[in-house]
Each structure stands twice: as C-alpha cells, then as structure tokens.
Write a structure and sequence with these properties.
Layout (H helix, E strand, L loop, with lengths): L4 E11 L8 E15 L4 E4 L14 H12 L7 E7 L9 H16 L6 H12 L3 H8 L2 E7 L2 E7 L4 E8 L5 H5 L8 H19 L3 H8 L6 H4 L6 H10 L4 E4 L6 E6 L3 H11 L3 E6 L7 E5 L2
Parallel strand pairs: 3-4
Antiparallel strand pairs: 1-2, 1-11, 2-4, 2-5, 5-6, 7-9, 7-10, 8-9
Length: 301
C-alpha cells in the first residue's frame, strides 16, 4: 500500500433512463465514500444505520469485489480497515450495490497497484453485478451506453453538461429481483421496435446535448416501465406533474421504486420543492449528474 490512509469516492447512478433497459447508466452527484487504512485484521463499519447489516467482512460486497479483483490478477488483498459513509439510499434503484462493487474494485486496484483501465474495471463489475448499466456509470462517470456480449462488455461514455435532475425517493424498499419478477418473459415485436428506436434517439440526443428530445424519449419505453409502474399508485400523476412543471422527462430509476426526473440547469431545486409539496410520500432531492466516476484521494502522513 503506497499510503497509510486514503479514501475512495463513488457516485450513485440511475439506470435504464426509460428505454435503455440494462444498457444506459448515468452517474449522479450522490456519493459513497470509503475511508481505508492498513490494519492487522480486515474490518468494515458503516456510518449509515441502514447499512449496518453489511458489517460482516466475509459477506460484504465491497470486500467481495476487492477479493475477486485481486484473485483475477493473481494477487491477495492485504488486511484493511474500512469506514464507509454514504448518502446513497439503500434498495431505492440508485445503484447502491453497483457503487459498493465499484468501490471494491477500486480498492483492490489501488492497494495492489494493478493500474486497471476503466474498461477492465467495468468488466469485473459487470461479472459481479450481472449487468453493466449502473456499475459502468459509477466507474466512468457521465452517461454510459453499454452492452454485455457473453463475457465481454463494451461501453461508450458520453459527457453530460447543461442539465440537472430531481430524485423522488419513497420510504419503501424494493429489491431488483422483486422488480424483475414483474417483467414478462416475452415482448410484443412492435413494442420492442419502439423502445429500441427510443433508446437510439435518447443516446443521440444526449450526445448532441439536446436534453428536451432526450427527455421526451425517456418516456417512450415499452421494455419495462409499463410492467414496473404498477408498483406506484400514482406514477402517471407524477409524470404529468413533472411535465406541467417544465421537466424534460421522467423515468423509473433502475428497478425502482425511486423516480428520476431530468430538468433544465438551474431549475432542479425549484422543481424538487414543488414535487415535494405535491407528493409528500416522497423525499425530493435536486442534484446534478456526476461527470466523474470513482475517485481516490490520498491522505499522506
């Protein structure tokens, strides 16, 4: 280990963005910070009460990702003590597990001086997570467009600027498995064509910084939102209110139950306040996309 102490900062993420099912990810300005120091025996503790259940080193996802990365490159992770601070709500469709995986990969990369590329980190992350959307965004930052082909993952990163977001986060927790159980085994051919075209348009619009068109395309999904929206009692009402207040578009964040809203730069705070008043069952949070992925900062001395 090159320094006695360092910290790893990992952004949260939203995935799918409507029609980009299991492919699109966007890093968010909400973070997990892992404070690392050398130790005689590995240990981990969380500052956030909801995460206390993950204090076991053997089953912890950060350590699992770090050990997996080490083994893959013929190394052994030395004992470290981790103290984790996080603002990422657990089980709310904001990539909490992907952030932990990205942090663990970065832990192994830094401690063992592996010098992995972002693509190599994402490859490991996808293997652990099962899909590349959230983990690629947490590793690379910005908007990521990815596809898994067998054991290979291809990712394109698109810088994001000139846009803000609002998250509507409920008190309820939903696992990705529970949400996936709502999906059909087969899709109508016309629905698949529509969603594929909408995802293509979203990516092109985002690359051209045309967020109005991107927001419109977010609301054209037929892959998963028609089936997952049943978990909300008022999804259409929320979507209509967002439009009325001038938002570009809205979508279920990942598997849910949070809702991601895209809006004009400088309007996030005002929109969040309006939505909070209208939908008090949700915590409303204004933030910006994070153009930076996982970062390491050293503490010397």
């Amino acid at each position: 280990m090159s320094v006695n102490e360092f910290s790893i900062k990992v952004p949260a993420s939203t995935a799918n963005l409507g029609p980009g099912f299991d492919s699109l990810g966007l890093a968010l300005g909400l973070y997990m910070t892992i404070h690392v120091r050398a130790a005689e025996i590995s240990a981990i503790s969380y500052e956030h009460q909801d995460y206390k259940q993950f204090d076991d080193v053997e089953s912890n996802l950060i350590f699992k990702a770090a050990r997996t990365t080490a083994v893959q490159y013929g190394k052994e992770l030395p004992p470290v003590q981790l103290v984790v601070e996080t603002d990422i709500p657990l089980g709310r469709g904001l990539g909490s597990s992907a952030s932990a995986i990205a942090g663990g990969i970065e832990l192994a990369d830094y401690v063992l001086d592996l010098k992995l590329s972002a693509d190599e980190k994402t490859q490991i992350g996808c293997m652990l997570e099962g899909h590349p959307d959230n983990v690629s965004a947490s590793i690379m930052g910005g908007l990521t467009v990815s596809i898994g082909q067998g054991e290979e993952v291809s990712v394109i990163r698109v810088p994001v600027k000139g846009v803000e977001a609002v998250l509507l986060v409920p008190q309820t927790v939903l696992s990705t498995k529970e949400s996936r159980d709502l999906l059909p085994e087969k899709l109508v051919y016309a629905d698949a064509i529509q969603s594929s075209a909408a995802a293509n348009m979203f990516c092109t619009a985002a690359a051209l910084n045309d967020w109005e068109l991107a927001g419109e395309m977010m609301e054209c999904d037929a892959f998963h939102e028609p089936y997952r929206s049943v978990q909300f009692s008022n999804f259409d009402e929320i979507r209509n209110a967002c439009r009325e207040y001038g938002a570009y578009g809205s979508a279920i964040s990942g598997a849910g139950p949070s809702i991601f809203v895209l809006c004009r730069e400088g309007e996030g705070k005002s929109l969040a306040e309006k939505l909070m008043l209208l939908f008090p069952a949700y915590h409303s949070l204004a933030l910006s996309p994070s153009d930076e992925g996982v970062q390491v900062s050293e503490k010397i001395g």
